[in-house]
């Protein structure tokens, strides 16, 4: 169940269920069914969020400060040409901006491990903490380079 605990074989909580994949093209009102793949938020991430909510009444999540192009089909994850409401693709003063990233750059690895879609990159970033330093491998004009940035927080 979405929102319920994810348990290991010993009955220990290891996460909170957050979503279940459906058959592509199915809808809630039409013929549907899940495909047996569920997603969960890891318990350490839940604990951090809960502690922040108790202490401050709000939770802060690590970000690199970019909008991603979800329609991109190539290798890696492409930074979009622009964000919602005509905002810039790379947030001015954010971690990616400070590292020199630009719209159209393709992030091909996070901490030396390849990334293949935007959801995967978000999960890798969210598994870290605000203030952590991370290394991304970025491709621009056919050339790859490594950049290091410090994750900022966002509500």
Global outline: globular
Beta strand count: 10
Unreliable stretches (pLDDT < 50, length at least 5) are none
Number of helices: 3
Largest sheet: 5 strands, antiparallel
Rounded radius of gyration (Å): 18 Å
Round the mean pLDDT to the nearest integer and report it.
Answer: 86
| Gap between N and C termini | 25 Å
Q: What is the N-to-C succession of helices and strands?
A: EEEHEEHEEHEEE
Beta-strand content estimate: 25-35%
State the helicity in percent bands. Answer: 10-25%
Structural class: alpha+beta
Characterization of the model:
- The chain has helices spanning 43-56, 95-98, 118-126; strands spanning 5-7, 13-22, 34-42, 61-63, 77-78, 106-110, 113-114, 133-140, 143-150, 152-154.
- With 155 residues, the chain is an alpha+beta fold.
- The protein starts with a strand and ends with a strand.
- The mean pLDDT is 86.
Short structural summary:
By secondary structure, the chain is of the alpha+beta class. The protein has helices at 43-56, 95-98, 118-126; strands at 5-7, 13-22, 34-42, 61-63, 77-78, 106-110, 113-114, 133-140, 143-150, 152-154.
List keywords for this structure.
155 residues, alpha+beta, 3-stranded antiparallel beta sheet, 3 helices, globular
Topology (SSEs and partners):
Blueprint: E1 5-7, E2 13-22, E3 34-42, H1 43-56, E4 61-63, E5 77-78, H2 95-98, E6 106-110, E7 113-114, H3 118-126, E8 133-140, E9 143-150, E10 152-154
Antiparallel strand pairs: 1-2, 2-3, 4-10, 5-6, 6-7, 6-8, 8-9
């Amino acid at each position: 169940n979405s929102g319920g605990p994810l348990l290991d074989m010993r009955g220990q909580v290891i996460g909170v269920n957050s979503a279940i994949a459906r058959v592509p093209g199915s809808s809630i009102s039409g013929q549907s069914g899940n495909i047996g793949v569920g997603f969960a938020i890891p318990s350490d991430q839940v604990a951090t969020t809960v502690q922040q909510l108790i202490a401050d009444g709000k939770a802060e999540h690590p970000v690199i400060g970019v909008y991603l192009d979800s329609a991109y089909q190539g290798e890696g994850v492409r930074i979009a040409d622009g964000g919602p409401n005509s905002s810039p693709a790379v947030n001015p003063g954010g971690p990616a901006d400070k590292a020199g990233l630009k719209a159209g750059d393709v992030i091909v690895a996070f901490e030396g491990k390849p990334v293949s879609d935007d959801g995967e990159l978000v999960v890798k970033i969210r598994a870290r903490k605000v203030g952590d330093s991370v290394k991304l491998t970025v491709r621009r004009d056919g050339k790859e380079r490594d950049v290091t940035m410090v994750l900022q927080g966002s509500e």
